[in-house]
Amino acid sequence: MSITVYSKPACVQCTATTRALDRQGIDYSVVDVSEDADAFALVQGLGYRQVPVVIAGERHWAGFRPDMISALA
């Protein structure tokens, strides 16, 4: 399953999310929405107005969600 974290610089919840993924040993990629207009449009198109937005296969969520991260492990 492909996991992508849509993030922006100096985002505390984004950092917490990537650290939690690292602790679980989960592979992911990070996309900076402040530098990628297409990624920003994708996140907005899903209805999100905050980062991080995590897309894991068919599931997606916004914010730091340790419960959802644990479910991926």
Could you walk me through the main structural features you see in this protein, from its secondary elements to its overall organization?
The chain has 73 residues and is of the alpha+beta class. Helices cover 40% and strands 23% of the residues. Strands 2-1-3-4 form a four-stranded mixed beta sheet, with helices on both faces. The N and C termini lie close together (11 Å). The model has no long low-confidence stretch (mean pLDDT 96).
Count, helices: 3
Could you describe the largest sheet, including whether it forms a barrel?
4 strands, mixed
Strand residue percentage: 15-25%
Structural class: alpha+beta
The rounded distance between the terminal residues' Cα atoms is 11 Å
Query: How would the global form be characterised?
Result: globular
Strand order of the largest sheet: 2-1-3-4
Radius of gyration: 11 Å
Low-confidence stretches: none
Mean pLDDT: 96
User: Level of helix content?
Assistant: 25-40%
